[in-house]
Design goal:
By secondary structure, the chain is mainly beta. The chain has 4 helices and 17 strands. A hairpin with a 3-residue loop joins strand 15 and strand 16. The chain starts with a helix and ends with a strand.
Length: 247
């Protein structure tokens, strides 16, 4: 309610390039959409092939995992829809793609082991699906992420994330300017949109304040229905990002 009142008086952000600090929910959703969706081994019309193993996506501090065994989360499963035990899969380690989520058939085609990730909603054929996807904690103190920023943007919450081929976008639900290293006035119209490699390549600090997002979240996939999922992340800083309303 307090945020809603603040947004009534928020001014539009001045479009430009800024250092950007993503809050826990924003960073978790970015990991889910920009990394997780492109590491599902059985492609579809929108994403015909996963990111190749060995692709460098970001810095050494970037590690993304998917774990359907985490206790008490929305994406937790005792078995997948092919009867296999789910297991944690590291998708990106130290900035490099090292794993994919597999069904039995995609694993056989790739010469890999299935990951217990098959899920089909509403009678759909099981496909490789995300579960509890998260960006692991880094070593920086949360206060370090805004230190030295004269003018930047802090995205505390998001309302949507999109993925079009290899271009990802985030639309902020609540954002503030950062001025002289401190959160300042709220701003509206805050969006990020760039190629995955360009956006993730701007990450330079990952904080150690990991949190799971408790929001009831769903993930849709073409031909595979909706699946309950969770995301998690610490605060993350990107050093030079285009911010503003899309053209």
């Amino acid at each position: 309610a307090e945020r809603a009142v603040l947004m009534l008086y928020a001014t539009p952000v001045r479009a430009g390039r800024y250092p950007v600090v993503l809050g826990n929910r924003a960073a978790g959703l970015l990991a889910h959409r920009a990394v997780g969706h492109l590491c599902q081994a059985d492609g579809d019309r929108d994403h015909p092939a996963p990111l190749p193993l060995g692709t460098r996506l970001g810095p050494e501090s970037l590690t993304v995992e998917d774990d359907p065994t985490v206790i008490g989360m929305r994406g937790t499963r005792s078995f997948d829809h092919e009867g296999l035990l789910p297991r944690k899969t590291t998708l990106v380690q130290n900035g490099v793609v090292v794993g994919h989520l597999h069904t039995r058939s995609s694993a056989a085609a790739a010469g890999a082991a299935p990951t217990g990730s098959a899920f089909g909603g509403g009678g759909d054929v099981p496909r490789a699906r995300l579960s509890n996807t998260y960006l692991t904690a880094g070593k920086a103190a949360p206060s370090d992420l805004m230190d030295g920023i004269e003018a930047g943007v802090l995205i505390e919450d998001v309302v949507s994330a999109s993925l079009d081929q290899h271009r990802v976008g985030l639309r902020a639900g609540f954002a503030r300017m950062i001025r002289q290293g401190q959160p300042a006035e709220p701003v509206k119209g805050v969006t990020l949109a760039d190629s995955i490699l360009a956006l993730l390549g701007q990450i330079d600090l990952v904080a150690g304040d990991f949190q799971w997002d408790g929001t009831a979240s769903w993930c849709d996939r073409l031909g595979a229905g909706r699946a309950p999922v969770s995301t998690g992340a610490p605060h993350v800083r990107l050093i030079d990002v285009a911010v503003g309303e899309p053209a």
